[in-house]
Amino acid sequence: PLAKAGYEIYALDYSEKLLDILKSKIRADYKIHTIYADMRDFHIAQTFNFAFISYSSFQQLLTLDDQLTCLATINKHLNKNGKLIFDITPCLCEGDNSVAQSLQYTIRYPKNNSTVKLYSGYEIDRLNLIKHYYDKYVEIFANGEERVFSHSISLKECSPDYMKLILEKSGFRLVEIQGGFHNEKLDKLSNNAIYIAEKCDDLQR
């Protein structure tokens, strides 16, 4: 939608495969530049009014040092009063300490005339507030053949007070926290927390 509206976009990812998928979708009239880089350490030769991190990706940074490095790098690429917006999952480390993989859903995949099943489990590191997810995708074709893909991802739980502190430490002012993608109020039942922060050079580092 941003590209369709005529904005110039710099899309950064640490996965070349995902960037290739994005490139395949870029129309000739879109102003989208793809950059293969780590969000903790990148350099673009210009500054911006707006940056965003989607799909809880910030929580893949599992240490305080990585989080602060990422935020400081983004801060350097924003103009004065530039906005940073990102979403996180607020309550990760609830429930049992570990759960074995179990079937989460089954869907049809028309492109391959196949059925895909997702099995997912997790372990919680309560000391470091990290949840380790272990997923397995099983694709079943019409002839009965199966293809299995396994994937793991770890996410760090971050409370609102924690996020406010590290944003201020990195030169941002927390403007607002919303409880969803449609301006909902944040409360204890919110599945998402949308952080809106503004670059503020006069904050104490």
Beta-strand percent range? 35-45%
Tell me, briefly, the overall form: globular
Rg from alpha-carbon coordinates: 19 Å
What structural category arises from helix and sheet content? alpha+beta
pLDDT below 50 for ≥5 consecutive residues: which ranges? none
Helix coverage percent of residues? 10-25%
How do the helices and strands line up, and which of them pair or pack?
Layout: E1 8-13, H1 16-25, E2 31-36, E3 48-53, H2 64-76, E4 78-88, E5 98-109, E6 114-125, E7 130-141, E8 146-156, H3 160-169, E9 172-178, E10 193-199
Parallel strand pairs: 1-2, 3-4
Antiparallel strand pairs: 4-10, 5-6, 6-7, 7-8, 9-10
Key traits:
single chain, 205 residues, alpha+beta, four-stranded mixed β-sheet, 10 strands
Verbal overview:
The protein is of the alpha+beta class and 205 residues long. Helices cover 16% and strands 44% of the residues. The chain is built from 3 helices and 10 strands; from the N terminus they run βαββαβββββαββ. It has helices at residues 16-25, 64-76, 160-169, and strands at 8-13, 31-36, 48-53, 78-88, 98-109, 114-125, 130-141, 146-156, 172-178, 193-199. The strands form 3 sheets. Strands 3-4-10-9 form a 4-stranded mixed β-sheet. A 4-stranded antiparallel β-sheet has the order 5-6-7-8, with no helix packed on it. It is globular and about 60 Å long. It starts with 7 loop residues before the first strand and ends in a 6-residue tail after the last strand. The model has no long low-confidence stretch (mean pLDDT 95).
